Amino acid sequence: MVYYQAGISSLAVCFPKTIRTNDYWQQKYPELVPPLRKKRTARNKSTLEFGELDIWSQEVAPYLTDPFRGNVERRVVDNNESSLTLEYGAAQDALNAAQLSPEQIDLIIVSSLFGKQSIAGNAVHLADKFNLSIPAWNLESTCSSALIALQNACALIKSGEYTRILVVTSHLGSYAVDDRDTLAWSMGDGAGALIVEKLEQYHGVLGTKIVNTASTCGAYTQEMMVDSEGIQRISTRTGENASMIALTAVDFVRTCCQGAAGVAEVSLQNIDYFVFNTPTAWYASVCAKALGIGPDKVINLYPRYANIGPVYPIANLYHAALSKKIKAGDLVLVYSNGAGATATAHIMRWGNVNLGSIPAAPIRVTPEQEQIVTTLSEKSASEISLEVKNNQFSQEQILAVKPEERRQLLETYVLQVLSDLLQVDSFQLDSQQSLSHLIDSLIALELKRRIENDLKISVPMKEFFQNDRLEQLIDFLLVQLTITSLTTPSSVTEEKGENIQEFVL
């Protein structure tokens, strides 16, 4: 068996013709859009210790005053476009850029996330459009699908089983989320394609690290539904476990990137450029801060495309190469994290990669919006850590006061956390206000995470949206704390060599 070095020789992207700006929701669903909040100059105090969670919170903070959370534009399909038409466009463009005919491909691997079809993907349909009888496989690993397909393609080529493989991925986020759900603001459509083949020695993929992300299962929920035209499709919503995306983000990026560097026998300091998938406006900043790298080595296209799922590794590589941020001979690290699937990092030596045609330019996105800006210096982080230690709020503090005083203390706590997250003065909030009008899914996730971290109780996401008034959430928290106080272990007694746990009932 002969082993070769394998990697990307050509890549291309294809996006829908329609660019949807935030005006779409402001004009069609104005009730969904909260007013723009004025950002406070004072730094918010956090109840979290400085560390992995705080990195996420710091990078989220600048977007909490923006009702659209950093979303500016997104590309969306019209009635004449589909995941298959986008995939075909990207694939044909990648072939043209490499001056190859479809007949020179001997395997197609496809990932079609949220396509208009109810089957797993478009692999055989894409092969049919090219009039090819070669193997065509569907592969799915949510937002990591493109990189998992790349890893499989490289392994197959290095084994000598195949010579040249076409990898294609698409994402129809706008088709999977109802426009009346604010999650739709972050969903974009697009497709990407890359050709994988034998490369010259020391080029191509040098090291890979893949882990499963089972801890984020339930971050999003999917169910089959029938739309207004009687067509079955997948509907996506934010799930109960969405907070785990924030809780695990730093650990996953460090584990995968450091692991891939170990396999490639390089250090992260040797990497010339980093490409992260960017499912949120702040995700690239989180990854950069987690790895301790400068913003000049990172690309962020989120304001331009919103969340395009598994297409992002290809799109970010394409634009980085197009803008000469990546050059032949550079060491490049590509990372993606797919909720409820896999997180993976690939380190590759960039070669003379052929690029497809340039997509349409954005309408309103400015260069400043696509800059990576980490929010705090190391000195500021230390200052926040000191503030945290002096302003802790815990379950023990609430349970230590008389039962009749707990509700008032709990109300004060919740209003203060909301004040921090909404960046408004606490006197503007009261427990009679409608919670659903105060917060969206992002604020709800941050509020849930803060409460669960501080009070050590579990709060289902539904509690933040099914209650008419804030006081109902406070009542729920009070009940949970009361139950906790009744079942807290008071002592551990040894008897006959066994540990017997006594409960106050």
UniProtKB/TrEMBL annotation:
- Which SUPFAM superfamilies has this protein been placed in? ACP-like (SSF47336), Thiolase-like (SSF53901)
Q: Which UniProt keywords apply?
A: Acyltransferase, Phosphopantetheine, Phosphoprotein, Transferase
Q: Does the keyword Transferase apply?
A: yes
Q: Which domain of life is it from?
A: Bacteria
Which InterPro entries does the record match to this protein? ACP-like_sf (IPR036736), ACP_syn_III_C (IPR013747), ACP_syn_III_N (IPR013751), PKS_PP-bd (IPR020806), PP-bd_ACP (IPR009081), Thiolase-like (IPR016039)
Source organism of this protein record: Hyella patelloides LEGE 07179
Keyword Transferase in annotation? yes
Q: What's a single GO BP term from this record?
A: fatty acid biosynthetic process
Classification lineage: Bacteria, Bacillati, Cyanobacteriota, Cyanophyceae, Pleurocapsales
Q: Which residues form a coiled coil?
A: none
Q: What is this protein called?
A: Carrier domain-containing protein
Q: Which PROSITE patterns match?
A: CARRIER
